[in-house]
Amino acid sequence: MLSIAHSPDADDVFMFYAIAFGWVDLPKAFSHHALDIETLNTQALQGAYDISAISFGLYPLIADQYALLGCAASFGQGYGPKLIRKASKKLKKHFKVALSGRYTTNALLFRLYYPHARVIYKNFLEIEGAVLSGEVDAGVLIHESILDFHPDLVVEKEIWEVWCELSNSELPLPLGGMVLRRSIPLIQAIALEKKLTQAIDLALAHSGLLSTMLIERGLVRVQADNLATYLTLYANASRLSEAQIQGLNALFDLGFQHGLYPAPLRTQDYLIPKRYHSLRFS
User: Which residues participate in catalysis according to the annotation?
Assistant: First the structure.
């Protein structure tokens, strides 16, 4: 049986549930797992699932085990995670900050930009409360948390701004994507990616209906207005654009240059070679 894992945040749920609701049939039976993104990252390091959502910042560490899928990716363009603090708080050089996980893309960028900050890791749902309680001086909000946080909190820095400064670009900010285990036969891998892409195309084409179904079943943490806004931000087109591929390459270069990855890599070399199908059966 095929194992598929994604996070419970709204864009992942939106992109997957056309399959869960039976709108698209996968070529084989599957088990379905919804776990927070850092749990998925750490389990990907152990090769736990056949297909899994991950943070792009993790990918070079698992590239020998997993291929990148060219669908179900989330990027920011002028927006993204937010470093927040209390309005009354001024951050010092060694401020204490809560991040959503060691392997998340936002944590990678944050640590490069704020090398003197004292980092602790928390479930992303606990970060706002940790800042409000004074447990930490600041925190990076991700997922739906960026849309609606406590009025006593203000944005210190957009991670989008951090990305632009570190990458010296305004390329799309890579956040998360999907990977597929390399041991899956290539013809089957191509078929699976095609079905996942079809599911996202259907979800985007019937966004209103699917959103209503997700809200009625309590499958997302936000209400209709915020869900529509969030999906506009992160339920990206079902195929990677050239600019998004350049953004991924910039992220991987950045990590390698700072000693976070063992080797440089080009995104194009790690995508599933879909042309193999036509060559194989031509």
Answer: 143
